[in-house]
Amino acid sequence: LGPVSDRAGSLDSHAMPLISNPNHAREIYQQAAESGICLVNFCTENRRTTEAIFRAGHAFAQQHGIRDLPVIVSVTANYPIEPQLQYYTGAGDAKLGLRALLADVDIYLSEDSPYRDLQVMLHLDHALPDYEQEIIPRCLEPFATIMYDCSYYPFDENIRRTAEFVEQHGHQVLVEGCVDEIIQSEDAGVEEGHLTDPAQAERFLRETGVALIVQKLGTEHRSTAAVARYHGDLAQEIRARVGTIQVLHGSSSLHD
Global pTM? Predict the structure, then answer.
C-alpha cells in the first residue's frame, strides 16, 4: 500500500502517527479493497505481544519493500471469554490496561522507535454493551475501529442497538457490526451448521450503517482442531451484497 492522501515525506524523516481519524482509517481500508488484499488484525494482552506485532509488521514491510504498512492492533476489554485489557497489567483492571497499551503504542511509534514506519490502527474487539460502559468512551478518540458486538441479542435487537451506536459514534470511530455470534470451539456442537444468511447480512448493513461487517462463515474462536471449515463461497455471496467490508473472526480455524 502506498501513502494515503494526508501523508507525505520519507519514512526516515518522521514518526508515523497513530491512525485514529475514521476518514483516514476508511481510506486505508478502501486502498486494501482496491488492491485485493486483507488487512491483518493481531490481538494483544501484554507488552511483549504488542511489541511482537510491531516488530513483525516492521520486518514484513522491510522484507517486501512496502511503504507505510497498515497494521491493526486489537484488544478486548471485559469480554468474558478473553478480557485482554484486564490481563495487560497485573492489576487486572481494563481501564489501567488501556492506559498501559496506549503508552506502549506511543513509545513504539515515537521518533526513536524502529517501528515508526508503520501505520497502526487500534481496534476494540467484542465490545459488549453490558460490559463496556466505562471502556468505550475512552477508546473513541485513540482507536480507529470498535466492534460493537450485539450478536448475542435477537437479530432485530442486534440491528437496533448497533444502529443506535453508529448514529451516536460513527463520526468518531469506524464501527464493526456482527450479524451472527461467532461461537467458541467448545460450543461448536451446539450450533454446528448455522451460517450467515446473505440476505440478513445485507439487511444488517442497510439498517445499521456499519463500516465493517462480521458474518458467520464456519470459523470458530479458539479452535485447536481441524474441525471447522471456512465457507469461502458464502463469503463471496455476501460480498456481492455488502461490498468488500468483511471481517473474518476465528482465524485459528484456518489452515496455514
Answer: 0.89
